[in-house]
């Protein structure tokens, strides 16, 4: 078997804690299938599982190992709605369309959990998420959001917590207020990847790791995918490379709309005062534009993300930077041991909404979940599969979203993003 260099830096706690992570062969030779899928993260695997379960002949390839991208290395938070709050979307797309997108997201949440149950694999689901306010002037906005979700979106699971209630729920006095969402939770993301891959293979999908695609071309009424050691012929193709579309130069459309940014996470050793931190077991995200997110794992460890980068170069001293951020929220942990540090690339779009587009005849690209992919990437893969099989057509709601290209084209978008993110990071600190 051919092994590629790691797509993301660092050994994650997820990799260290998964007892069985099956390896799949690389593809050597020519193959034919009804459906070809490029990318073995949440989107590609969920589409393969759905299609194979419906009787389609599916081949899925990935340039690396399944889960080496963001799908196996993210913060594990499921969230509610799209990446942008429904109340924010109303002014741009109207209440009706915002409610429709919220409905899709709620179905995504339910189907994520039911899929794991139906196929008999554990994803370590834990309920609860807290969104914390780091600027006092935003407190009323969070209170209004909790009320609007109950009144206009029939979602009664969000409650507002004042400063004292927030301090008790998080174990920190750093935040001014928060909202608690008991209608969502968090998972072990790599277990979701492993479970979907095993279920897809059992359903008949042919899975291949360490198999990069070099070109996609129209071939009569179908598609031809050229690989390093063979050719894959199919009637239709899904490109689900997401944040790694830049490396997949055979498809130039998506990289103009999906920007990769790099995020880094640390996991501490066992904490002496673990019971005082997040006693309810929720996951937390905060209101910074450069969001910080954290939760407890294994009962007595803290997983903390917040270090980001906007170039391919891995920053130095990631542990020290994450430890400093942890200490800003939990001062007693200023010298905490960090056992694991890892990073990965997240695909974002300008409006922070998914990119779903037909990029050439018979070929669809899906990505850009902007840090909200645990449920939405998984669900959008299922929606694409359902559209292919002629079932529900909720995918059209996502296809109709206006996802403009990043300014500056592929060459200048990263320098422009760096300038913009530097500005927002400064505002977060003020």
Which geometry do the CA atoms define? globular
Could you give a short account of the major beta sheet? 8 strands, mixed
Task: Give me the CATH fold name of the domain at 13-74 and 190-258 and 351-420.
Answer: FAD/NAD(P)-binding domain
What fraction, in percent, of the residue positions are helical?
25-40%
**CATH architect. name of the domain at 13-74 and 190-258 and 351-420:** 3-Layer(bba) Sandwich
The N- to C-terminal Cα distance equals: 51 Å
Given as residue ranges, the uncertain stretches (5+ residues, pLDDT < 50) are none
Quick gist of this model?
The chain has 430 residues and is an alpha/beta fold. The chain has helices spanning 13-17, 42-53, 86-93, 95-119, 139-152, 163-170, 189-202, 318-329, 373-388, 395-399, 409-429, and strands at residues 31-38, 58-61, 126-133, 158-161, 177-186, 206-208, 213-219, 222-227, 230-239, 259-268, 283-286, 293-297, 301-309, 338-348, 355-360, 363-367.
Summarize the structure in words:
InterPro entries: FAD-dep_OxRdtase, FAD/NAD-bd_sf. It holds the Pfam family DAO. With 430 residues, this protein is an alpha/beta fold. It has a domain of 201 residues: 3-Layer(bba) Sandwich (FAD/NAD(P)-binding domain), CATH 3.50.50.60. 33% of the residues lie in helices and 26% in strands. The protein has eleven helices and 16 strands. Strands 1, 2, 6, 7, 8, 9, 15 and 16 form an eight-stranded mixed beta sheet that branches. A hairpin with a 2-residue loop joins strand 7 and strand 8. The model has no long low-confidence stretch (mean pLDDT 91).
């Amino acid at each position: 078997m051919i092994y590629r260099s790691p797509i993301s830096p660092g050994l994650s706690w997820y990799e260290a804690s998964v007892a069985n992570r099956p390896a799949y062969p690389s593809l050597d030779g020519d193959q034919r299938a009804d459906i070809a899928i490029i990318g073995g993260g949440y989107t590609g695997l969920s589409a393969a599982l759905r299609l194979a379960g419906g009787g389609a002949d599916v081949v899925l390839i990935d340039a690396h190992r399944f889960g080496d991208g963001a799908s196996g290395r993210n913060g594990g938070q499921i969230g509610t709605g799209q990446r942008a709050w429904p109340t924010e979307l109303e002014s741009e797309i109207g209440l009706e369309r915002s409610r429709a997108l919220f409905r899709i997201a709620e179905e995504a949440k339910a189907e994520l959990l039911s899929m794991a149950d139906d196929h008999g694999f554990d994803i370590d689901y834990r309920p609860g998420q807290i969104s914390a306010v780091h600027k006092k002037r935003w407190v009323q906005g969070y209170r209004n959001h909790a009320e609007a979700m109950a009144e206009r979106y029939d979602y009664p699971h969000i409650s507002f917590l004042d400063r004292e209630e927030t301090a008790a729920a998080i174990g920190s006095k750093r935040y001014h207020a928060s909202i608690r969402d008991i209608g969502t939770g968090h998972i072990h993301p790599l277990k979701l990847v492993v479970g979907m891959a095993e279920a897809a293979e059992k359903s008949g999908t042919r899975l291949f790791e360490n198999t990069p695609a070099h070109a996609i071309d129209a071939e009569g009424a179908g598609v031809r995918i050229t690989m390093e050691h063979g050719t894959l012929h199919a009637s239709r193709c899904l490109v689900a490379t997401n944040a790694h579309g830049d490396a997949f130069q055979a498809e130039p459309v998506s990289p103009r709309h999906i920007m990769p940014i790099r995020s880094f996470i640390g996991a501490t050793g066992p904490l002496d005062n673990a019971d005082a931190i997040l006693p309810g077991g929720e996951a937390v995200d905060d209101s910074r534009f450069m969001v910080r997110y954290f939760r407890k794992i294994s009962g007595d460890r803290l997983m903390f993300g917040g270090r980001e980068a906007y170039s391919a170069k891995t920053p130095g001293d990631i542990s020290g930077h994450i430890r400093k951020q942890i200490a800003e929220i939990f001062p007693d942990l200023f010298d905490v041991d960090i056992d694991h540090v890892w990073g990965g690339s997240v695909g974002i779009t300008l409006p922070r909404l998914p990119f779903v587009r037909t990029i050439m005849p018979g070929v669809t690209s899906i990505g850009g979940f902007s840090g909200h992919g645990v449920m939405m990437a998984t669900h959008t893969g299922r929606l694409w599969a359902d559209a292919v099989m002629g079932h529900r057509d909720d995918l059209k709601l996502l296809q109709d979203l206006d996802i403009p290209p990043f300014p500056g084209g592929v060459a200048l978008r990263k320098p422009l993003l760096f300038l913009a993110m530097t500005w927002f990071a400064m505002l977060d600190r003020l």
